[in-house]
Amino acid sequence: MECPVAACGNKRYPRYNQLARHWALTHLEYTDLFRCPLCTFTTTRRNQVRRHLVTRHRRTQAEAMSLIGLHQGGSTQRNTRYISPGGQRMPRRGVTPRAQELRREAELSRYLEAEGNTAMDLGRTAIISRDQEVTPDGIIRDSARWYRNADAGSRYTPQDVDFSLFPEHTE
């Protein structure tokens, strides 16, 4: 899975739990810190305190668990590695970017149909309503008599067109 935050460099993680750990360590403004009750060791993960107690302080698993139980909650601190997600959300488990795209398209299609428009998806670049048509070369023509390229997205300006160049479209 990929981190959706561009400031992270769109890092890829092979497993969802790795992405979740990255998100918790990087994109949450505040984080819980867990401390070893015997020394100054601090970590963001409770299980690492248990492992630390077993390896550094030579405690048994049972002793480590009882020591951690005494200090159950972590202290909330400002995250020093915080990178703002910029409006992005943590991806949900099992929801691929393709599934999200299809869900958004279905919602938009339902909305247009409710408004009385029949929608058509043109190569994932433009939604065409019933008062527009697309020529085979990707030009969109609507009732306002202007053309735009389907790949231009939302950045286009209306242009006057000489319809005599298109005999099938003359009126």
UniProtKB/TrEMBL annotation:
Residues annotated as domain C2H2-type: 1-27, 34-57
InterPro entries for the chain: Znf_C2H2_type
Top-level taxon of origin: Eukaryota
Gene3D superfamilies: Classic Zinc Finger
Region (Disordered): 74-95
Protein name in UniProt: C2H2-type domain-containing protein
